[in-house]
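Quick log. Single chain, no ligands specified.
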Amino acid sequence: MKLYMHPVSTTSRPVLLFIADHGLEVEEQVVDLMTGEHMQPAYRAINPSGIVPMLEDDDFRLGESSAILKYLADKVGSPTYPTGLRERARVNEVMDWLNTNLYREYGYNLVYPQIFPHYKRRTAESQDETVAVGEERSRRWLEVLDRHIIGPDSPFLCGQQITIADYLGAGILTLGDTIGCTFADYPNVQRWLANMRALPNWPKVHGVFDGMVAAFSAGTYRAI
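-> predicted structure:
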């Protein structure tokens, strides 16, 4: 198998961590997002969407981080994607919730406009409004995550055991490291993230990302 990815990518890191935790033999091909390689014809021929990650398994290609996590988990029979009807439905629900609710506001309206020039709005007024609305709506979703999805008794998103939803969610939430998010108002989120950061392969997978975080540390950001 071969994974086209970038080590700082919010959507690549969950797959990379899953691969490391499961000891899978996967060739890793870096697609340089910083130079726009993902939008060049050579990569667009592999993934017309021009995004990472992209998994190749012989003649089968699969994009989208959530789909790749499910595919790999099924391929190796990982308990992180339970086979029970309701247990699996819960994992699917949380992954969809992360992608369609939290990531939309938290990533694209709060974090990305503050750190990437191509996401910054054209006027200062529009930029300030986007980030303010992104923070407000992110806080709404974080409250749901903290109180209802995790709650006070669960170490992971779907209960007592780690699932692929945790891999996906940790990649999204740690995006906030770039702007200094601490989640001080969300103790269950903090506890869950601490559990994910304690995974043995976390430092190895996130080393390049942590370097990027350090590069952003001198800035002033609106954070949660």
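The first strand starts at residue 2 and ends at 5.
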